[in-house]
Amino acid sequence: MSRIAGLISPRAAARLPHMTDALSHSGLSRTGALGHAALAWRGTEEGRFARAQDCIAVIDGRILNRPAPEAAEDAGDAGFFIALYRRHGFVGALEKLIGDFAIALYDKDADRLFLGRDRVGVKPLYYVERPDLFAFASRPRALLALPEVPATINRRFAALFAASHYRAIDNAPHDSPYAAIKQLPAGHLLEVAGGSARIRRWWDVAEAEDWRDDEATLAERYRELLQDAVRLRLSAASRPGFMLSGGMDSSSVLATAVALTGARQHAYSSVYADKTFDESDDIGPMLEEKVAAWRQVPLGDDVDVFGLVAEMVAAHDEPVATATWLSHFTLCRQAASDGIETLFGGLGGDELNAGEYEYFIFHFADLRAERRDAELRHEIACWARHHDHPIFRKNAAVAEAALARLTDPAARGRVRTDRARLTRYYEALDPACFDLSDFAPALDHPFTSWLKNRTYQDIFRETAPCCLRAEDRHAALFGLEHFDPFFDHRLVEFMFRVPGSMKIRDGVTKRLLREAMRGILPEATRARIKKTGWNAPAHRWFSGARLDQLRDLVGSRAFRERGIYRPRVVERLITEHAAIVAGGAPRENHMMFLWQLLNLETWLARMPESVRTPA
Where are the domains of the chain? Predict the structure, then answer.
């Protein structure tokens, strides 16, 4: 695990320790200064810092396709990148990399600082630009250690986190939770020269013709790409462990590792006393065939959600988007205590393989635009048969209503915001804090396919950013490396050219992945249609004594003087949530609103007194 930081400023070398101390990362430390620039790396393995003549490079993460060193004197990933930069320039060097990385390089001869972030944004990178100062770091706290950088809260972020859906909080990928700190978006680079910074995209997924090969051929290519993505990461991993749910994605990563190594692997699973989201039974076939040792990490209804959220917020420098990440936090803690050093996960599988339930609607829109009417009727019928739910109903009328709500028929491929989901809790926000009534999420439309545009939106603005950030923070806290093979950019590019009917067919998602995993996954896992989804029973965590704690928080003077929420609305939602959970009726509860409230309040309480209320 590693972290990087640096700055361009008068007395840069003298000021750098303030930033590196704030990174709070045990292990090795390397720093270097050239002229008015100073760069630092902290981590557990050598090779992420290099100085060669008038260049310094630091890397958070891994370059996975670096050739094996030909001499005993190995310059590591950073030295390799400097050599690439000299031959191909900064963009050309980035384009040749496979891996998860945030890179900074200072070239004294050109008097330029370059920052680059990996294609999907697995590794974070933040920066501050002020008069006589440009600084960057892997974490906001390293930038906040500089006296010129105030801890003022980003008002829009606070308002969205308080009263909107978690999908909205990363809609502006350049922003951070702090007003003075910016984030370098995934697939972007930043160049500082002549006293000013310029940002541009260096990688993107572009519209291209769908593959015309048959499904068997594409499944073989998919299998080869996934195997190589896992192989490269296994070669960089030490003491690996595998997160394992009952679904296709984590199971495919683990089973592929078994196929490559010929050895069963160690697996970690969150298990719950409440069976709503527990997948223990579905994991059974993987245990029988692929797992050497299975560590269950139990979370009961009596989990100390307040204490764990406090630990998580301290590790994140910000509130944590969804309750799922409390499960991940405890899982990482257990894996690290067991001596695991690298965790593999299945993030990215749902986005690439149309695994989320709402993806059906966008596939339906594509079928309608292509005038495949009989197929559309068949798919809606299969969707209803396989996935109907007592709360989230599935039928032809629901499909038509969702198509009208979420897709724009006048502009092919243009998705619409789910306004009901976005605004459900707006009434809980005090409009004097921030007015969200005019908030309109940015919606990217690089493709003529609704399904592809929805996928693109999720990877770069909605579901993936908060997940990757949480995974990164937890892994760093517990000294773990983490890998998500589905987010290998070669797989991403490949899957954006796979026809929708090879992702969803006969009401079943992830069709091409299922075919690619034939003979690798246990058949019961490969053929399972039911999807529980990686979630957590926060509806139970916010009940009983914890709900009383939440009431005490909402009734406190600090909460009311903060001026973010309307306390009476929040109190009503708490009462409603308690009644829904106690009643047991199939109704949607308010667990995610309560989770976001607790996280936001915990974060704001850690801020200096002068900035606890967004100004």
Answer: 2-201, 215-352+464-527, 359-460, 542-611
CATH 3.40.50.150, domain 2-201, yes or no: no
pLDDT in tens, 463-489: 999 999 999 999 999 999 999 999 999
Query: Could you confirm whether domain 215-352+464-527 is CATH 3.40.50.300?
Result: no
DSSP structural state of residue 501? G
Q: What is the DSSP string of 239-258?
A: SEEEE--SSHHHHHHHHHHH
**In this structure, are strands 112-117 and 126-130 parallel, antiparallel, or unpaired?**
unpaired
pLDDT value at residue 1:
73
Structure tokens at 193: 């020269």
**Can you tell me the distance from the alpha carbon of 433 to that of 600, in angstroms, rounded to the nearest whole number?**
14
**Mean pLDDT value across the chain:** 94
Cα–Cα distance between 117 and 60 in angstroms, integer? 10
Span of 2-6, 64-68, 388-392, 610-614 with lowest mean pLDDT? 610-614
Query: Comparing 2-201 with 215-352+464-527, is the CATH topology the same?
Result: no
pTM: 0.95
pLDDT for position 257 = 98
How far separated are the first and last CA of the chain, in Å rounded?
Answer: 36
Give dist(CA 94, CA 313) in Å, integer. Answer: 32
Rounded CA-CA distance 192/124 in Å is: 19
Sheet bearing 2-8, strands edge to edge: 28-34, 37-43, 2-8, 133-137, 126-130, 182-183
Of 152, 120, 124, 150, give the one whose Cα is nearest residue 139. 124
Q: What angle do CA 85, 86, 92 make, to 5 degrees?
A: 40
pLDDT of residue 615: 44
Helical segments of 462-530, H only: 463-477, 489-495, 511-516, 523-527
Burial per residue of 45-66, b for 16 or more beta-carbon CB atoms within 10 angstroms, e otherwise: eebbbbbeeebbbbbbbbbbeb
